[in-house]
Each structure stands twice: as structure tokens, then as C-alpha cells.
């Protein structure tokens, strides 16, 4: 996400490195480069110009503190302006009414059905009783797709595969939700390949009849400026409440994310960064601005970890680490937990500086496969007491897992290093505890 933009902005700020003061001339050069980077990232020209003009005025108006370099100051101002541009602060979806209805709109292929599932999982985690409704009457596969997702996340899906009247299905679903005590209903609607009149009238009628507390517009961020134009067209007809940007994992330009809020004046509420149900984040303009500037987004990373990690398991692992008993079973369980958190590359991108370091690197869930294969070839005794894994056993593990002996040796070395580090950490923790007792 935003890899290229981050790199170019980084380069723009570098032009200010070394200069001790902010002057009209050096700011002008940097700001011009920032503008070019934004436009290259597919940010609407007018928006890019407006924001960089503001950055320039702000930069020239501020005193440079001795502690910060002009480059750092400009990064800070750019971060503030990007945050403002993307809406300033996080905006939640409105949930009210009995049941509360959330209507999902967008073009076909934008990721509506996938998002409906993700939103279901998100709302369920908040402790809500949710019903998903399959109202995509033109694409029978969408009904099955939603049913599969519903099963996966443990949320009920209402569908009437034979019925071709979306409004009727929705009304029946609401009656069903009332009967079964579901307080939140998410309605997935039909999309088209291009904006067309029949579809617009249909969803307009749906919105009028259902009176949802929240109407979301789902848009594929990879479609660039088209995304902005489609958003405009939908907003004119639906007056939606919020935007969901999808496929930000595949989008290295990301300009739509930056300009959509400014152009339609509706907040972005969620971003989707992959096909898995976990790949959903609540949109925070400030965190996104930090990510764009390559500053990482540790808060979102921690939030994902909190949502995905099993607390009891974390406690168990912690005590194993403290007693220097961390073994391969624990390692495997940790890998599983990390994988549950979603797209690995995207997660690494949330760590400050990692986005840049990872450019061109190909990391995905499959990267863990060799390690998993080797560990799974171990006997329970070997997993529990890694020290017994001698040369002969290593050869057997390589043959058993279909990996090379070098890979097995590397894993053993990494594991040994990891245990050594854990031991040292324990010692340091012990020393700290002893110190605090003495004081
Ligand atoms: P709909 O026609 O709007 O309901 O779109 P779908 O939900 O069927 O999504 C279309 C395709 O995009 C599917 O193959 C999804 O798996 C994929 N998709 C949806 N969201 C994302 C995302 O955030 N990232 C990626 N990489 N793929 C996505």
C-alpha cells in the first residue's frame, strides 16, 4: 500500500536535508516534488495543488525549532495536511433502530460481498447479533459466496435464491431479523459493471424503503480516478454516509484514498486490504497519513493483534518463555496466530520503516510453508526437546518435509538464536525485578 508514494515523498523531503533553514526557495522545490509525488500516485490534480499550497504556506509561517530539521518540520506539516485531507478524524458507522439496517452499495467486483462478510465479522466481534442479507438478485454466485462467508464467520445469512425482487427479500429479511432477535442487518445489494440507470433506481428505491441508519459505498481503490467519479455518481443518487475503500493491498498508488474524501465530502469508514475476513481496518486519517509517509502504523498493528490473538494462548506462551521452555510446538502455534492476523506483507508495512525496506520483497503466507513443513515432520519428542535433533535427525527431517538440509539447519539456528534471546530477556527481566526490590 502506498509504497511508491512513500518512496517519492521520502525523496522529496531529502532535498531539504542538510539545509539549516526554511526559505522560500528550498520549500518551493520540496513542495513541488511533493505535488508531483501525489499526482503520480493518482491524486486528483486540483486536490494535490490545494494541499501542497497549504503545506507551503504553513511551512513558511512556522519557526523552525532548533531541535527539528526543516525536513522533519515539513514531514510533520505534510502529515497534518494529509490527515485533514482524508477527513481529520475517524468516523464510526451509525447503528440505530430495531433492527439497525446497513445498506451496502457499489459497482460489481468492487468487493461488496466480501466486505459484507467482513463487516458481519466486525460487528459480531462487538457483541452484536447480526443478519447478513443476500440481495444481489442478478448474480446467483453472490448468494452462495455470502453463505460461505457467513458460515466461515459464524453469522447467519438470509437469502431467497428464487426471488428476483430485492425489496421483497429485504423486507422479509427484516421481518425474520425481528423474529429471531437480530439487531443489526447488513444488506448486500447488486452491482453492475458500469453505472446504469436500472441499477441506480433499484438501489435508490431500496434505500428509500428500508431507511437504513447507514449506507456505505464500496469502491475498488485500484480503479484510481474512476473510483472518485463513481463515488460522485453514487453520492448524487444515494447520498451515502460513508466510503469503504477496497483492495488497498494491491494498490501501490493509492491516490483515490487521498482524494475521495475531498471530492465527495463523505468520510472513508473502512479499508480492506485483502481477501481474508481479517483484512479489514477501521479508517483513521491520522494513521493513514503516517503510513503514507512511511512512518508505519503501529497502533493498527496492535489492534489487529489484540483482535486475533487468543489471550489464554498468549499467557501460556509467555510462561513457557519465562521458564525457558519455549519449544517447536509453541513456535508453530505462534506462526498460526500471526497468520490469523491477515496479509503478512500488509502487516509488515505497518511497522515504521518496514514499507521502504520491503520494497520488491515477496512475502506472503506461503513464506512460512517450508518452516511449517519441517516442524510438522518432527516427532512430538523433537518438538518438545529441540536439543535432541542431531545430524541424523536433521537429515530425516529434510527428507520428510521435502526441504533441503540447509533449510533445516537454518531453522534450527534461528530457533536456537531465538531461545538464546528469550533467555537473555528473562535474565534482564530478573535483574530489573531484583533492582526494583532493592530500591
Ligand atoms: P462484488 O461483486 O462487489 O460483491 O465483489 P466481491 O466481493 O465478489 O469481490 C470481487 C473480487 O475481489 C473477489 O475475488 C474478492 O476476493 C476480491 N477482493 C475483495 N476485496 C478485496 C481486497 O481488499 N483485496 C483483494 N486483493 N481482493 C479483494
TrEMBL record:
SUPFAM superfamilies: P-loop containing nucleoside triphosphate hydrolases, Signal peptide-binding domain. GO terms for cellular component: signal recognition particle. The keyword tRNA processing does not apply. GO terms for biological process: SRP-dependent cotranslational protein targeting to membrane. Its main location: cytoplasm. InterPro entries: AAA+_ATPase, P-loop_NTPase, Signal_recog_part_SRP54_M_sf, Signal_recog_particl_SRP54_hlx, Signal_recog_particle_SRP54_M, SRP, SRP54, SRP54_GTPase_dom. It is found in: Cytoplasm. GTP binds at residues 106-113, 188-192, 246-249. Its EC number is 3.6.5.4. Keywords: Cytoplasm, GTP-binding, Hydrolase, Nucleotide-binding, Ribonucleoprotein, RNA-binding, Signal recognition particle. Belongs to the GTP-binding SRP family. SRP54 subfamily. Involved in targeting and insertion of nascent membrane proteins into the cytoplasmic membrane. Binds to the hydrophobic signal sequence of the ribosome-nascent chain (RNC) as it emerges from the ribosomes. The SRP-RNC complex is then targeted to the cytoplasmic membrane where it interacts with the SRP receptor FtsY. This is Signal recognition particle protein. It comes from Algoriphagus yeomjeoni.
Amino acid at each position: 500500500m502506498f509504497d511508491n508514494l512513500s518512496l517519492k515523498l521520502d525523496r522529496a523531503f531529502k532535498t531539504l536535508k542538510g539545509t539549516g533553514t526554511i526559505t522560500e526557495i528550498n520549500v518551493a522545490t520540496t513542495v513541488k516534488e511533493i505535488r508531483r509525488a501525489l499526482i503520480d500516485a493518482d491524486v486528483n490534480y486540483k486536490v494535490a495543488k490545494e494541499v501542497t499550497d497549504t503545506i507551503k504556506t504553513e511551512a513558511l509561517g512556522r519557526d523552525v525549532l532548533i531541535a527539528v530539521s526543516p525536513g522533519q518540520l515539513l514531514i510533520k506539516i505534510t502529515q497534518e495536511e494529509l490527515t485533514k485531507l482524508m477527513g481529520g478524524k475517524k468516523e464510526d458507522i451509525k447503528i440505530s433502530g430495531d433492527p439497525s439496517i446497513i445498506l451496502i452499495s457499489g459497482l460489481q467486483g468492487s468487493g461488496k460481498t466480501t466486505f459484507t462478510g467482513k463487516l458481519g465479522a466486525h460487528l459480531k466481534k462487538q457483541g452484536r447479533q447480526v443478519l447478513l442479507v443476500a440481495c444481489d438478485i442478478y448474480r446467483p454466485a453472490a448468494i452462495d459466496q455470502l453463505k460461505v462467508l457467513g458460515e466461515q464467520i459464524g453469522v447467519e445469512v438470509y437469502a431467497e435464491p428464487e426471488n428476483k425482487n430485492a425489496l421483497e427479500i429485504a423486507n422479509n429479511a427484516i421481518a425474520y431479523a425481528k423474529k429471531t432477535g437480530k439487531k443489526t442487518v447488513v444488506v448486500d445489494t447488486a452491482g453492475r459493471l458500469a453505472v446504469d440507470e436500472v441499477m441506480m433506481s433499484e438501489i435508490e428505491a431500496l434505500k428509500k424503503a428500508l431507511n437504513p441508519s447507514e449506507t456505505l459505498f464500496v469502491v475498488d481503490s485500484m480503479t484510481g480516478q474512476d473510483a472518485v467519479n463513481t463515488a460522485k455518481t453514487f453520492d448524487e443518487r444515494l447520498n451515502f454516509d460513508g466510503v469503504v475503500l477496497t483492495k488497498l493491498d494491491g494498490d501501490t498508488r493509492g491516490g483515490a484514498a487521498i482524494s475521495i474524501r475531498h471530492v465527495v465530502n463523505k468520510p472513508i469508514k473502512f479499508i480492506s486490504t485483502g481477501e481474508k475476513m481479517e483484512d479489514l481496518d477501521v479508517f483513521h486519517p491520522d494513521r493513514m497519513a503516517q503510513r503514507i509517509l512511511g512512518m508505519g502504523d503501529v497502533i493498527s498493528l496492535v489492534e489487529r493483534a489484540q483482535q486475533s490473538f487468543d489471550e489464554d494462548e498468549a499467557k501460556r506462551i509467555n510462561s513457557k518463555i519465562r521458564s525457558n521452555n519455549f519449544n517447536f510446538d509453541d513456535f508453530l502455534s505462534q506462526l498460526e496466530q500471526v497468520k490469523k492476523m491477515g496479509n503478512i506483507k500488509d502487516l509488515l508495512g505497518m511497522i515504521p520503516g518496514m514499507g521502504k525496506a520491503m520494497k520488491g520483497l515477496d512475502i506472503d503466507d506461503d513464506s512460512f510453508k517450508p518452516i511449517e513443513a519441517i516442524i510438522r515432520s518432527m516427532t512430538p519428542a523433537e518438538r518438545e526437546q529441540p536439543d535432541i535433533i542431531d545430524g541424523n535427525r536433521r537429515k530425516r527431517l529434510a527428507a520428510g518435509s521435502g526441504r533441503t538440509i540447509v533449510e533445516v539447519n537454518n531453522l534450527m539456528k534461528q530457533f536456537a538464536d531465538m531461545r538464546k534471546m528469550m533467555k537473555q530477556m528473562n535474565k534482564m527481566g530478573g535483574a530489573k525485578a531484583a533492582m526494583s526490590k532493592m530500591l
